Amino acid sequence: MAIIRRHALLLGAAALSVTLTATACSSSDKQDAGTAKPASDADVQAALDAGGKITVWAWEPTLKKVVSDFEAKYPKVKVNLVNAGTNNEQYTALQNAVKAGSGVPDVAMIEYYALPQFTLAKSITDLSALGADKLNNAFTPGPWNAVRAGGSGVYGLPMDSGPMALFYNKEVFDKHKIKVPATWEEYIAAAKKLHAADPKAYITADTGDAGFTTSMIWQAGGKPYTVDGTKVGVNFNDPGTKKFTTAWQQLISGKLVAPVTGWSDAWYKGLGDGTIATLVTGAWMPAPLKSGVKAAAGKWRVAPMPQWESGAKATAENGGSSLAITQASTNKKLAYAFLKYATVDEGAQSRVDAGAFPSTTKQLNSPDFQNKKDPYFGGQQINQVLAPSAGQVVPGWSYLPFQVYANSIFNDTVGKTYVSDTTLQDGLKAWQDASTKYGQEQGFTVK
Prior knowledge:
globular; D-Maltodextrin-Binding Protein, domain 2
C-alpha cells in the first residue's frame, strides 16, 4: 500500500515553503457558506440530496472503494478521486494551486505531521461549524489531537492511525533464546545478545528516520516542539529527548543496528531472512509485511512497545493521515458529507476491512476486529496488542507548522550520526538550529 511508504519518501522530499499570510480564495463570492454559520445535520443531508461534484486529492488506495460505495448510495453526487502524488508531491501541488487561485480540490488527504502547515496558512477549513467538533468521541485520542489546531478548531477528520508496537521475528528470538523485551533496557540487552550470537543479525535497522526519531522522543515524554500561533519553540535538550538519545546511542555506537535504509530492497530482504529481527513502528505495519515479506509468513509476532519504565503503558503515534476540506472549496457541506462517510460512517469499516488501521473507537473496540486471528502472524490476535496501544498514546505532542521542511533536512543533520562520530544528541542540536533558522526566515518567532 502506497500510504505505508510515507516515512521513506520524506527523507528525499523537497522542502515546502511556508507563508504566514492567509491565502485569498479566488471564488470567495461563490463559496459555500458552510463555515460562515453553523451547519446542521439537515443542512449536510440537504447538500447530499441536491447532489453535485467534488474533487478529492488522495493517494490512499482504500478510498477507491469508498468513493464507489458513496456514489452508489448518493447517485446525485460525483466524486472525482485524483492521485496528485504521494505526500510532499501532493502538498507541493496543493500549495501551488492555492497560490494560483485555481485547480484547488475540495478535499485533500494530509498527514498529521503536515496538517499544521496548511492550517496556519489558512488553506484548509475549520470543520467545527460543519459539526466536526461533535465527533471527538468517535476517534481515539492520538488522531483526534492531531487534527485539532491549538485545541481551537478541527482541521481534518482522521483516516487512520499508527499507535506503535514491537514487531518481532519469533523464529529468530527462539533460536537464540532471546526474551521478548518489555523495556528499552531489555531491548538493548537483546540487541547485544543477538549480534554476539550471529554477527550478521541485528535487532533492527536504522540509518536515520525523522518520523521514527520524533515518535520515540514522544513516547519518552519529550516535547521538543511548542506552538502558539506563529510563536514556535524547538528544544531537543529536554529530559524526554535525552532519555531516548542516551539509550539509542548505545545501539548506534555499538554498531548494533543494521546500516540498511528502510523500505529498500535490502531492508525487505533482511526482514525476510531474519537478519533484521524487529521493527518498532505503527500499527499499519502488518500490510507491508504481508505484501513485501511473504517468505517470513508465520514467523513474525506483535508485542507491546518496550517501555522506558518497567510496568508503564506509554506509546506514541507513528504515521497517520486525515482528510481536510480546502478553504477554496465551493461545496463544503457536500465535501464534509464525504469526509464523514469515509472516516466515521460506512467508509470507515470498508477501509478497515481493506487493511487500514482504524482511528475510530467503534472499529477499534469491535470484538470482530480485536479477536481476528492473523495467519501471517502465526494465528496471533494481533489487534489485541495494537488496539490497546491506541489508547496509551502520550498526550500533548505537537508538530511544527513547518514540519514538512524540518523532516526533509533530517538526514543532513541527525543523519550524520550514523556515518560519523557525531552523537545523536549533537545531531538533534544541528537539526534544531537548522529548523530554527528556517522558521525565522519564514517569519516565525522561534525560541
